[in-house]
Amino acid sequence: MLWEKIQRNQDVTTSEIDAALRFTQTQKPHHNGGNMPKDDKTPLYDEKAGIKTADNKLISPRSPNQVSYIEAIRGNDMVFGIGPAGTGKTFLAVASAVAMYQAGEIERMVFCRPAVEAGEQLGFLPGDMLEKIDPYLRPIFDALHDMMQGDQVIKKMENGDIEIAPLAFMRGRTLKNAFVVLDEAQNTTSMQMKMFLTRMGEGTRMVITGDPSQIDLPAGVQSGLKEAMTILHNVEEVPFIHFDKTDVVRHKLVTKIIEAYDKHEYRTRS
User: Fold this and answer.
1) How far apart are CA 99 and CA 112, in angstroms?
2) 121: left (phi over 0), alpha (psi -120 to 50) or beta
């Protein structure tokens, strides 16, 4: 694929070269359950494994686990993406939502997060509701703007085709013909997670992303994501794609930071 980009006079970044090298070095992707590709030979850096938007923009996976993640989203109604920051969990989920919306496979996109980060509550933040939730949902806004024109995002939000809201707003609803992403799911309580998972209606796809190592819940409160990983582990129709430091696509220093923290945690447990 890199050679094809060069032939088309497109720029090849150092991160893309790094990703291609990791494809040749990484072992079998980490996943369980779900309708995954039958061929064990995961396509390496193949355009067919990517996500193509209506404006002909190709989002290419940069690790075997990212390929498995995209394939799992294509083949299943519910998918969990588990792993550290910078592995593309949220970005690829948003890209998949936009591609399916533009292809007419779903009617709207719904993105939500539990608003519990940094110990703050929505009521203590200035501004109206949209301004209050902006700090919590900014990564989703950023990903959307990478896939669509800014005026398109605003227009789709105004007509209801794109909804971005705190997780609490999902209570009591049934979501039909939608692509729903729950981000930062490690910060859901057990009750919130069950509430969210049971919102699924006809024609709806759900992607749940989170990092169990970055839980911001009060001490003693069980993470809904960690509980769901245990309860739903053997449900064949619900694949869990597990990312690790080899999937990080941010600055290379992020990979070293994650590795250092993993070693520290291991020593602490030992």
Assistant:
1) 18
2) beta
Q: Write out pLDDT tens, residues 31-69.
A: 666 665 444 433 333 455 677 765 666 777 878 899 899
Q: How far apart are CA 212 and CA 187, in angstroms?
A: 9
What is the per-residue pLDDT across 204-254, written as a single tens digit (0 to 9) for each? Answer: 999 999 999 899 898 889 999 999 999 999 999 999 999 988 888 766 677
- In three-state secondary structure terms, 102 is helix
- Token couple for 67: 């390929």
Yes or no: say if 105 and 148 are a contact pair by the CB < 8 Å rule: no
Q: C-alpha distances in angstroms, 93 versus 59, 99, 106, 109? A: 11, 10, 14, 11
User: How many other β-carbons are positioned within 10 Å of the β-carbon of residue 231?
Assistant: 14
Q: Judge whether 139 and 86 are in contact, CB under 8 Å.
A: no
CA separation, residue 255 to residues 30, 31, 118, 243 (Å) = 18, 20, 23, 12
DSSP count for the chain of H helices, then E strands: 9, 9
Question: How far are the Cα atoms of 84, 165, 208, 232, 262 from residue 112, in angstroms, in the given order?
Answer: 19, 5, 10, 21, 28
Q: Which residue has the tokens 């990703």?
A: 19
Round to whole Å and give the CA distance between 144 and 108: 13
Residues 101 and 108 sit within 8 Å (Cβ to Cβ): yes
Q: Which two tokens stand for residue 11?
A: 């720029």
Distance CA 168, CA 240 (A): 24
